[in-house]
């Protein structure tokens, strides 16, 4: 395969060449979302949703008002979001790279200069030119108490990104080890006095020190690929581009939680974000992104009043009329949450950010300077996590039927007909997910249906405008039980388990098998699956903590032994010298 | 986990148990009742007729009037009776009728009750074997309820089961099952139950207790089982505890 350098030699300035030749205008990563099979599936799923919605809303099928209201509320949110998401997916087959991009990309380096400097094999030294002006972007790596090894990996990779750039380690963890590491690797190190504004504050502080026209941001655990600047910087040849976002790709699909969380994001990065691009509403996700400094300055820096600074910053930029670009090319590989704790905190942060927009910054309001496309997409962003609360409402429906004989639907149709309507929505959605992810990822379904306490908490926090306080103690790095973060799930599981037993008893004594029993048992199994996952994680965590402790203890013991020996030796020498001959 | 979160988890578990126990108790109570899909108050009536055709010379009662056995209801001027009497074909007037001083037929009430319908008024010509009025017999009000029961529920419907009758104004009356007629449709027992009650007094509760009033009748089914036993024990224990504290 030809390297960038080879191409520079062999085929310079393809876009300057007046001879016409066929050129593929679609990059390979967009082809999946343009597949005719996907389009057909999306259309089928849309038809299924309509049929299902008509079935639910048919007054003839209405049951008792309480469970019916719960079902209609939950399904309205789910159905509306499914339709909007599918619309977005259908818009995903559009390549944001135009002539400007390709033209700028080919004039990014000066071949003569590279040869003069003798930097053929050191692409990180190549000076980059945009519109024939030399540019030296900054690369910010934000750290906050991450593992030293993780930071080392990221900083080393960041230093080796192709094209001359400045690498900065922005350490909010105030660790001397990180400082020494940065010095050792040759990156700049910044530590600020306050830690106001969290990550956004950290970046804003660094912006006051760095002078580059563009700056990229990476979380400490996202290892950038060398081509990052090569693939993103040319977009800035368009004068209205505020940032270029690349996907979060994960390398740690090891646990049920990380697979669930990771694949959930995979659909978003592969299909939804490219679609949002078309609406000019792709939002920044905080890492693997490169900003135009002038754009961020124009909105007064990265937005600091929210934990979801990335989405808010994007919204501010869009309101100012900036264009944003998302490319679905993997240019950095990182970690998705592996533990219940990390997953809970991540989802809580994201959901609170979304609800904040919904409650305080209605994107449909006339005051917002947004296009219709952007209004729709930001409405989706703002209300997206309501779909996470919907399972809670649906979980409550079978117990209502078991205990109080309140049924949501008054069905005169056969169970088979009912199942067909139901399949119109759920089975087709699962099929669609199967197609987009390439396989059935039950972990995603599991996590999606048990995360409702997180989203309820986020909604409450957003309404009351308060910060989440976790009732956990223990020093950093010590073992913390996942159950401390999932008490609501445990309690709901207990309730559903008891309800299933009661429903079985009711079925046994009445001789009538109800759908409520089947549903409730399924829900119990799903929550039980999550409990088992957490229990395994807890067991693994305890074992790791124990072995760490043992290693620490044995090291201490060895040190103590050594000290004892030394003291003994000292004593012997003393007695030797003191002893009268 | 810290002790604080352990305690909160424990408190939460306790709450879940209490909620589930209350809900199960409620379910068991519901399970012990069969609620009518349709029920109404009905009464026995008798139709007042005339053995002779003739002209109603006078009606002595109106709708709603209380009558006792032997009370005169109608005076009928009947040519047929006059003829029969004149020729000695009959000597005494038929059962529950008498003759007034002008030899006209007086139709008497055959039982205590209340007039609910009057078809013949003064001046009406009545043929033989026609109904002049309908009288609702006194103290014969009952409730007829229709129930859809599963086979197992039908098995738990005992003779003389207690019934709670709820009137449209939410006041309740106590009754008991008198007779059950059952047919089976689609594996479900369609039971028509006749319920009697001493508290069904005509005109009580602002006149709501009367024939034709829609009511809800809940039958107490035999409800043995774990939950009933446990609930009973808990109730006994709490009662004895409360007695112990108070007494």
UniProtKB/TrEMBL annotation, chain A:
Keyword Nucleus among UniProt keywords: no
Location of the protein in the cell: Membrane
Keyword annotations from UniProtKB, A to Z: Glycosyltransferase, Membrane, Transferase, Transmembrane, Transmembrane helix
Topology within the bilayer: Multi-pass membrane protein
InterPro entries: Glycosyltr_2/OpgH_subfam, Nucleotide-diphossugar_trans
Keyword Transmembrane helix tagged: yes
Family annotation (SUPFAM superfamilies): Nucleotide-diphospho-sugar transferases (SSF53448)
TM region positions: 38-57, 69-90, 376-398, 418-437, 444-464, 484-505, 512-535
PANTHER family named among the record's database cross-references: CELLULOSE SYNTHASE CATALYTIC SUBUNIT A [UDP-FORMING]
Protein name as annotated: Glycosyl transferase family 2
UniProt source species: Cellulomonas phragmiteti
Lineage: Bacteria, Bacillati, Actinomycetota, Actinomycetes, Micrococcales
TrEMBL record, chain B:
Protein name according to UniProt: Membrane fusion protein biotin-lipoyl like domain-containing protein
InterPro entries: MFP
């Amino acid at each position: 395969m030809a390297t960038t350098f080879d191409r520079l030699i062999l085929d310079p300035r393809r876009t300057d060449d007046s001879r016409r030749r066929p050129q593929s205008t679609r990059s390979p990563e967009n082809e999946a979302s343009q597949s005719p099979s996907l389009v057909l599936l999306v259309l089928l799923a849309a038809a299924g949703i309509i049929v299902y919605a008509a079935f639910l809303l048919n007054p003839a099928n209405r049951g008792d008002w309480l469970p019916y209201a719960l079902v209609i509320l939950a399904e309205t949110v789910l159905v509306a979001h499914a339709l909007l998401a599918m619309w977005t997916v259908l818009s995903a087959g559009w390549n944001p790279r135009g002539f400007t991009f390709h033209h700028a990309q080919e004039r990014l380096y000066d071949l003569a200069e590279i040869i003069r400097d003798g930097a053929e094999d050191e692409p990180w030294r190549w000076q980059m030119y945009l519109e024939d002006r030399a540019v030296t972007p900054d690369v910010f790596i934000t750290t906050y108490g991450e593992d030293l090894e993780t930071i080392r990996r990221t900083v080393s990779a960041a230093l080796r990104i192709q094209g001359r750039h400045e690498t900065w380690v922005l350490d909010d963890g105030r660790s001397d080890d990180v400082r020494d590491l940065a010095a050792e690797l040759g990156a700049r190190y910044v530590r600020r006095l306050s830690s106001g504004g969290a990550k956004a504050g950290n970046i804003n502080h660094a912006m006051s020190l760095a002078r580059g026209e563009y700056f990229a941001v990476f979380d400490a655990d996202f290892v950038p690929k060398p081509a990052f600047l090569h693939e993103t910087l040319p977009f800035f040849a368009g004068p209205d581009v505020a940032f270029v976002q690349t996907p979060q790709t994960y390398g740690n699909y090891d646990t049920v939680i990380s697979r669930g969380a990771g694949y959930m994001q995979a659909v978003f990065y592969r299909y939804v974000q490219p679609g949002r691009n078309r609406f000019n509403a792709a939002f920044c996700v905080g890492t693997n992104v490169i900003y135009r400094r002038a754009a961020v300055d124009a909105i007064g820096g990265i937005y600091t009043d929210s934990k979801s600074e990335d989405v808010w910053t994007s919204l501010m930029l869009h309101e100012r009329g900036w264009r944003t670009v998302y490319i679905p090319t993997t240019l950095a590989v990182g970690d998705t949450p592996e533990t219940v704790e990390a997953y809970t905190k991540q989802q809580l942060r994201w959901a609170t950010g979304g609800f904040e927009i919904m409650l305080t910054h209605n994107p449909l309001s006339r005051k917002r300077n947004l296009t219709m496309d952007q209004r729709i997409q930001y409405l989706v962003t703002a209300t997206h996590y309501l779909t996470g609360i919907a399972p809670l409402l649906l979980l409550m429906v079978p117990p209502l039927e078991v205990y109080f004989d309140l049924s949501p639907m008054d069905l005169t149709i056969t169970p088979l007909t009912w199942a067909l309507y139901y399949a119109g929505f759920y089975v087709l959605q699962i099929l669609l997910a199967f197609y987009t992810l390439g396989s059935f990822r039950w972990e995603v379904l599991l996590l999606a249906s048990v995360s409702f306490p997180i989203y309820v908490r986020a909604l409450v926090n957003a309404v009351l405008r308060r910060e989440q306080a976790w009732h956990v103690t223990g020093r950093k790095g010590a073992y913390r039980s996942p159950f401390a973060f999932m008490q609501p799930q445990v309690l709901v599981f207990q309730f559903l388990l008891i309800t299933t037993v009661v429903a079985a008893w009711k079925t046994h004594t009445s001789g009538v098998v109800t759908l409520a029993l089947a549903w409730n048992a399924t829900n119990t199994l799903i929550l039980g699956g999550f409990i088992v996952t957490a229990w395994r994680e807890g067991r693994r965590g305890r074992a790791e903590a124990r072995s760490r402790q043992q290693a620490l203890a044995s090291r201490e013991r060895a040190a103590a032994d050594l000290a004892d020996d030394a003291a003994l030796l000292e004593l012997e020498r003393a007695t030797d010298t003191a002893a009268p001959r | 986990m810290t002790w604080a979160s352990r305690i909160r988890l424990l408190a939460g578990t306790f709450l879940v148990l209490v909620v589930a126990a209350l809900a199960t108790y409620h379910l068991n109570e519901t399970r012990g009742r069969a609620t009518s899909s349709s029920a109404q108050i009905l009464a026995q009536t008798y139709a007042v007729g005339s053995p002779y055709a003739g002209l109603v010379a006078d009606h002595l009662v109106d709708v709603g009037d209380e009558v006792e056995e032997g009370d005169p209801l109608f005076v009928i001027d009947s040519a047929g009776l006059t003829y029969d009497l004149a020729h000695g074909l009959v000597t005494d007037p038929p059962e529950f009728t008498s003759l007034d001083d002008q030899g006209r037929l007086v139709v008497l009430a055959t039982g205590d009750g209340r007039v609910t319908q009057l078809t013949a008024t003064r001046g009406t010509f009545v043929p033989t074997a026609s109904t002049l009025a309908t009288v609702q017999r006194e103290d014969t009000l009952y409730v007829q309820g229709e129930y859809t029961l599963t086979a197992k529920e039908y098995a738990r419907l005992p003779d003389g089961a207690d019934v709670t009758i709820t009137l449209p104004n939410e006041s309740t009356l106590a009754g008991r099952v008198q007779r059950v007629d059952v047919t089976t449709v689609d594996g479900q027992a369609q039971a028509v139950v006749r319920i009697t009650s001493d508290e069904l007094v005509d005109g009580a509760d602002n006149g709501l207790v009367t024939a034709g009033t829609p009511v809800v009748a809940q039958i107490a089914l035999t409800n043995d089982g774990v939950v009933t036993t446990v609930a009973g024990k808990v109730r006994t224990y709490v009662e004895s505890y409360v007695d112990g504290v108070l007494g």
